[in-house]
Specification:
Elements (H helix, E strand, L loop, with lengths): L54 H26 L3 H5 L7 H13 L5 E7 L8 E2 L5 E11 L7 E12 L2 E6 L21 E4 L3 E5 L7 H19 L7 E5 L3 H8 L10 E4 L2 E3 L4 E3 L2 E4 L1 H4 L3 H18 L9 H14 L5 H4 L1 H9 L19 H19 L1 H12 L4 H13 L3 H16 L1
Parallel strand pairs: 7-8, 8-12
Antiparallel strand pairs: 1-3, 2-3, 3-4, 4-5, 6-7, 9-12, 10-11
Helix pairs in contact: 4-7, 7-8, 8-11, 10-11, 11-12, 12-13
């Protein structure tokens, strides 16, 4: 699940909602959460390994870099003030298709409450790549914020090709693969015009095809945010950002193409997590319109309360925190005020016990893959384990345990220690107690 230590971008263990039968309608089976990388293929800064130019070439490269940085600064400022002429001034007139897309982007993003939008060419990316004909392709970092959502800018990779025209360097392409294999991130504004609805605790973005969903999502998020904050604390932004893509192709572009979207109703993403500072950057909830409506009103509320729980706890959820604890806590919060009785929440768990051969092991990361046959069962196992802790020592003690484990250098050792301090039994003993509890209640 990615790197360890504060500030590292976490690996690809996205949160998933599995769809299945419960009450004849749904099984909302937990969500696997860890920050999904923001498609930042530039982490390794491969371009930095290119040999440094010398002599006159060195001077020309420095001049080119200065010109490009000036152009990018002007483009960022133009977008923020919705200046069409200024925005397009840096685009090569010969690149007709690119100019059309860029003009459309400015229209599409007009309603989005941006707090910042700027581009940088980082020191490790300055070499770029010279193309045949003399054009220059370089990895650029987009820094942007959504007002009320982002306390610091989120970062996305943009690969741009610049071509010299009459002594000026202009953008001629944004669809090439950059040095190190990086590609341009396509935000929701590149998939169509965005409509925005803000609530007291929510910022929901959708395209016109999903205009009818905006008010409903605002109402649900506004309702669950105070509840989540009351239960788990943590750092919630002024508003939680929810993106509603038009289709799974757009969703894949927003969250990464490696997910099995057929079983996903919502995904929570973040760029990075710094547990030493209790801070997560770039948090978004992305819903899958192909699946979210299959859950019904109650299911959507549970899903979003679960997702918001991960937003609240992300800053103290380290990359090696046991996945059953991460998913189980969010499920426990999501279900605890749903009104659903435990035996209905544990539908798949009861079925496994009736069938015999239930292993009675706490689920691991592989169980939460979108294509795992144990996906729904794994979430119910995780939920039941966290529910057991909360029932025995109370919600506050469960949250303290979660935080202590999530911020520890050795989460496995911290889990054993915290379980002993909280419940009087280590990990092995707790697992046995949980197994017996599940059999007694649901068997």
């Amino acid at each position: 699940m990615g790197g360890t230590g504060p500030g590292r971008v976490l690996g690809p263990a996205p949160r998933r909602w599995a769809i299945g039968p419960l009450l004849g309608l749904l099984v909302v089976a937990g969500v696997c959460t860890a920050a999904v990388p923001a498609q930042r293929g530039f982490q390794a800064r491969v371009a930095a390994a290119a040999p440094a130019p010398r002599g006159n070439t060195d001077t020309a490269a420095a001049a080119r870099l200065t010109a490009v940085r000036t152009l990018l600064d002007r483009r960022g400022a133009a977008l923020l003030r919705h200046d069409r002429a200024g925005w397009l001034a840096g685009v090569d007139p010969a690149a007709a298709a690119l100019r059309t897309r860029q003009a459309g982007l400015l229209t599409n993003i007009a309603a989005v409450p941006l707090g910042a939008w700027r581009y940088t060419v980082e020191p490790g990316d300055q070499a770029g790549r010279i193309e045949r004909g003399g054009s220059w392709t370089v990895l650029v970092t987009l820094h942007y914020t959504l007002r009320g959502v982002d306390s610091v800018p989120t970062e996305r990779p943009v690969v741009l090709t610049f071509t010299a025209r009459a002594g000026r360097w202009l953008i001629s392409a944004d669809d090439r693969t950059g040095p190190g294999g990086s590609t341009t991130w396509r935000g929701p504004w590149e998939h169509g015009r965005l409509l925005v609805r803000q609530g007291r605790h929510s910022l929901v973005l959708a395209h016109p095809a999903n205009a009818g969903r905006l008010a409903g999502f605002v109402a649900v998020v506004d309702a669950v945010v105070p509840r989540v904050w009351q239960v788990v604390g943590g750092r919630l932004p002024t508003r939680v950002a929810v993106l509603i893509p038009d289709d799974q192709k757009e969703m894949s572009a927003l969250v990464g193409g490696h997910l099995v979207l057929g079983t996903i109703a919502a995904v929570a993403v973040a760029d990075s997590v710094d547990t030493a500072r209790d801070r997560a950057v770039g948090q978004r909830i992305v819903v899958n319109p192909a699946n979210i409506d299959r859950l019904g009103a109650l299911g959507r509320r549970v899903v979003l309360e679960h997702e918001v729980t991960h937003v609240a706890t992300r800053g103290f959820t380290g990359p090696a925190e046991p996945i059953w604890l991460v998913e189980g806590l969010a499920d426990w919060v999501g279900y605890s005020d749903s009104g659903l009785p435990a035996h209905q929440v544990a539908d798949q768990l009861r079925a496994a016990l009736r069938a015999g051969g239930w292993p009675g092991k706490l689920p691991v990361a592989a169980d939460f893959r979108g294509d795992s046959p144990r996906l729904a069962l794994a979430y119910e196992e995780a939920w039941s384990a966290c529910r057991l802790i909360a029932n025995r020592v109370g919600p506050a003690a469960l949250i303290r345990l979660y935080r202590a484990v999530g911020t520890a250098a050795d989460p496995a050792a911290a889990l054993d220690k915290q379980l002993r301090a909280t419940l009087g039994e280590g990990t092995a003993q707790f697992t046995a107690s949980w197994r017996a509890s599940v059999r007694a209640e649901f068997g």
